[in-house]
Every structure is written in structure tokens, then in C-alpha cells.
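*** Residues and shapes ***
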Amino acid sequence: MDRFPKAADVDFHSPLDLSKAAAAVLDDEGRVSGWASSAERLLGHAPEDVLGRPAARLLAAPQGRRLSALCRTHRPRSAVLDLRCRDGRTLRAAVTFSPLAHRGVAATVVLAADLETQRCWESQLALLQGLATESSVGLTIFDTDGRVVWGNVSTDLELAGIAQYIGRPAADLFPEGEFISRHHPPDEDQIMEHVLKTGEPILGMHYRGRAPADPVREHVWSCSYHRLVDARGEPLGLFEESLDITDRYRAQERLSLLVRAGKRIGASLDVRRTAAELADVAVPQLADEVLVDLPPAVIEGRQPPTGSAPGHSLLRMHGRTPEEFRTSPVSYPPSSPQALSLASSRPVVDTSPSAAPDGAGSDPAQSCLFVPLLTRDAILGLATFRRSANPDPFGAEEQALAVELAERAAVGIDNARRYTSQHAAALVLQRSLLPQHLPEQSAVDVAYRYLPADSRVGVGGDWFDVIPLSGARVGLTVGDVVGHGVHAAATMGRLRATVRTLALLDLDPAELLTRLDDLVAQDSGSDADDGLSEETLGVTCLYAIYDPVSGRCVWASAGHPSPIVADANGSVALSALAPGPPLGLGGLPYENVEMSLSSGSVVAFFTDGVVEDRRTDIDSGIDRLVHVLSWQRCPVEELCDRALSTLPPGAQADDATLLLVRTLRLGADHVVDLELPPEPAMVARARTLTERQLAAWGLSDLSFTAALVVSELVTNGIRYATGPVMLRLIRDRCLLCEVSDSAHTAPHLRRARRDEEGGRGLFLVAQVSQRWGTRYTASGKTIWAELAIP
């Protein structure tokens, strides 16, 4: 389908052409001797009405003398006359008079056309003349072989003379040019062949090259191609329209560059990557190379130097990945353009650098632009934009663009610096909240892994702890705070400290979770806007106590996944623990679950992130962990690595914490139990038994101290309790002395007055032991003391 269906109506023949104009012949007397049908069509007069009559009668006003003068001319003349139509109208017409001598008879051929039509044609002709001589659009005609036939003045100026290219192929015009529009074939010969063959014009192709008239500066043209046909519709060739859009194209490129800069620069929150992002955006559109120099403090996340501009002790960034990243020291002499840029906080252009600045490379630079990296009235460093292949110096608009890119980079670098500082602080916080070194104890072998989901911050809301308790027992806890980052870590640290404090009170797991639930509920209901209360609305926790003497393990859960137990025989099973509600919700009690574990059993405590993922359900994750625990004879460190290697690849949806413990048992030769009737004479027996047992253990050096402690504790038990008193001695990393009775009243350490006979027993116990305390049981209480083994 034709793009211009009325193109056939466009006629470039003159209205006064003999084939179109109204024609008549006048004799030497000015009478009409010939009247063509075209004249009848224009004025409406029939031949019989005008033949033989004076032509002056056809004029709308008396102009006889002028008409006579035009008829007697010896050369063609033109005039504008008002002609009278048959219907009474007056037609202003353009009229030409051409003298004609035929066989000695003088006559004049007169051609007439509507003046308005004639003026329109003349405007079209002037348009064509203007396109050829005055238009800024380059017009070039090629024949069917793609060779230059003609070019207008604009093309002539660009080519520094069109004559030298007549008859040559199109490829000779701009030998190093190229099409940068990719929606058509990039080869000009293919474009011409397509237009000639199909007749379909190709419009708006962007072409980049150097014009022969300006070989130094690179230009961009918008080119369109149209087929030329003759009157029969046969191809004559094609013509090319080209318009220099260099300035507009560069403006669009600058705008697109700024858009890319807004999306890319500063998105990584990493100083070195932000420097690389600036180079990625600016090269090669603005410069051939971009160098970024920063003080060491900025790279390390510390405050930039204050005072004078950092012209010395800068480090140049190299590499775009953490593996490639390195730095090299640079410094600027006081008189250098770099130092001037830093001192003035303004861009400086050096149009004649003899070589790459500061040994950046071996290629000489044509032009360098130095732009300080400024933010919040601080100078972070210097960005250097270098051109080596492009000879054009940095213009005012390009300098403004470089400054804006440098500003964006400076903000990104400053944000990355602050993030680095905050990240370091968050890591310090995390390390201070999680156990750095597990305490020495004999109850379990322990291994753990902690993987925060927020890999950028590196901290999260999961926690775990291993807490030595009295009687060689150990407390084990795992918890999970909803969310990630510093707020979750701070809430986690507060809860972990609370759990440790409550655990040291020797509370059983259900009682500990009940008290912890009350504290979390109080925090959630407080009006304090500390950013932490919302985190505590989704807290789960599991707490367990393992006794290596009896092999008894008791645990309770507040909304936390049940532990998985692999016994010494290799069978693996989930515990029968029914989790209570998460902390802070209240309403339902927490219950203890008790299990007897054989020596060598492996118990896995974990958070949701270990077994749950967006792509798999929690049952599949538990099956993976159960399969790993079936290898329970492996060291627990190896089991931890095996468990985490089964996690799905990619980013984690939740923090993952895994705590594996292998249970140990204290042999019978490490524990002595003695039941004493509630008689004062039993105190001496208890001392004697203690001394004998310590001698058997090779701890005679502790006999006096241990006998003193046992004497005081047994005396208190017999004096204030009813029923028998139980004495237990445990040889572990220290000597443990425990006395249990049926009373629920705890003794209190106090300072006895001089006139009092008693009240000094617990004071003596506290002085000679490294730790002592009281724990309550279902049948009463136990007072214990730990003595260091020399």
C-alpha cells in the first residue's frame, strides 16, 4: 500500500506550460485569431464569441494600450492581467506573450493560468531550490548501482566538495562510519538494496562517523532512504536525507547516561563496587577511562579526613570484583591540576597531558577532567575522566555531566562508607551477643553453625547458648526472633541474656519459659518506642537441661521446633515434645518433656531456617536433617557441615542456626551418694566419708576444705529440714558437693554479729568455694558448692 495515495496529484509542471495553460493567438491588430479549448475551460467563452474580435474585450478593465504593447514585443513577456469570464467573474491570471512569425504573418501566442495556481507552483519551485541550495538537510542522489549522482549544497559542504565523489560508491563517502541503529541491516549497501527492491523507505537510521570537512570531530546523522522512479514507475535510483543531530544525540545520550547512573551507581553499598560502577556508567560514552582515588579511611568505613584536601596518601581503586580488588598509592604535587581540583572543590580540565596521570597507563591521554568527590561539605576523593582515543576536549556540558556523575558516586561512596561502619558495628554487636567460646563442661560435646539470612548486614535474630549448671548439668537453648538485622539482633541479645540469668537460678525448662513469657509480654505491651517491641511479638525458644550423672534430659518449647534425637544405636526420631505458644502470647502453660539419653546420643536443636525454605516444605527439610543425623557416629563438627551442605542453594529466606550436642555420662566412679538420717551425729560421718572419698580420688589436698563445706551444709539440712538428708560428691572439672533435703526454704547468706553463736556457716562456704547456690526440686531443695581442684 502506498504511503502517500495522492502522490500522483503532485505535478511539478508549470501552470503556464503549453500542455496545461489556456492558449490563444492574437493577430497584429490585437484581434483573437485562435482560441484553444483550454482557453474556453479557463474563461468559459466559446470560440464563436471571441474569434475575430479585439482581445481587449476580454480584459476586466481598460488596458488596451498595455495589451497592444505586449502584443508588439519582439521577445516573450509576462504580465498579471484581470480577465473577464463569461459568467461575469474576474480572474486574475498570469499571462505570457510570445511573438510568432509564420509565413510573414505577425501573431502573438498568449498563454494564461490562474495567478494563484502559478504562485503555488513558483513556491514549490522555490522549495526545491531551497532544498538544493540552502537547506541544512543533506540530500544525495544515488543511481541503481549505489553510486553518487548528485548532492545538494549541504552535502557538498559536509564532503568538502561533492564533485570528487560523483560516480563513486556510497561507502567512499564516510569510510570509517557506521550505523548505530540496530533495527535495520547495519550495512549501507544492504539498506540501499532493500529500498530499491521493495520501494519501502527506511527512516531515521542513526549514522556515526567523521565528515571529510571536519575529520577531527565525530558526528551523528539521522538518515532516511527513498526510492526514485521515472514516469513509467521504473527505478531511477534512490535519494538519502541526512540531518546532523550530533548535539541532540549527545544530549539524549547524556540523559540516558544519567538515568543509568541513577539505577546503577551506589546500588551495591560497597565502596570499591561504587567506584567500579562509576567507571562502568561513564565508559566509553563520556570517557575512555575513569579512575577513582580515595583516602584509606573512606575505604575502611571511617570518617574522611577533615581540614585540608586529601591530596596525599590516597589509594587508587583497581578491579571490579572482590577477587580482583586492589589499591595502589597515589599523591599529587601541589601544582598539579589534581591538587588544584581538590583545593578548589571544582572540576579542572587538562587538555594537554603528556602521558597518563600518575602512571595510570602507558597510552598518552588527549584530555583529562579531574572532578572532586564531594558530599556533605566533605571531600571523599578524586575522580579522573580520561580520553585517549577521542580527541575532543571535555566541553562545558560534558563537564557538568561528569560533575553530576561524581556527585552521585560521592553519595554512593559515602553511603557505602557509613554502611561499612554500621556493618562493622553490627558484627561487633552480634559477636558480643552470641557465644564466642563455649564453656568447658563434661556433659556434652557441642558443635554449632549460625548463618544469618541478611548476608549484607551479617546479623539476625537467631540465638543459641550452652550454660553450665550446678551438679555438672548443662543448659541448652535455641531461640528465634522474627526479622533480621540490628533490631532482631538486639532483641535476641536481650532475650539470650535473660535466658542465661533465669537458667542460673536453676529453674526447670517449663518454669523458665513461663517467666520469660511474662517478660516478653511486658515488653510487647510497653509504650516505649525503641524499635524492638515489635520484634518480640514473634519469638520462639526451646530450653533443655541435660544431667550427665543420670542421663536425664528435660526440655520445654515456646513455639519452637522439636529437637531430633539420634541414639547411640543409630535410630533417629523426633521427640514427643508438644510446643507451647510463642513467647509473649500467654494463655497456655508450658510443659516439660523428659527423656533418658544413652551416652553418645546426638541431639539436634535448630531453627526454622535449617529445615524450611521457600521452595521446599518443612517436612522435606526435617527429612534431610534426619538423614544427616543417621551418620551420628561422625564427629559433631562434621555432622554440622553435612547438615548445612544439604541446604538449597541461593539466598536464605530465614536465619539458620544448628546446635548439635553429643551426650556424655559421668561414670559411677565419679559420683558418690550417701543418705544420712536427720541426726546430729551424722555430721561427723559425712565428714569422714568425704575425707575417705577424696583420698580415693587423689584429692587429699581438698580434704579440709571439702569436709568444712560438707559439715556446714549437712548441719543446716539436719537442723532445718525433716526427713533424711542426701549427700552427693561429684568429681568433674571441679569437686561438687551437694546436700539435698525436703525443706523448701532457702538458706540466706548473712553477716553474724559478734555475740551470735551461729550464722557463719554459709559465709564460710562462700569464702572457700568458687561457686555455690540453691536449686529447688519436686521433693525439696539442693544446696551445692563447687571447689576448684588444684
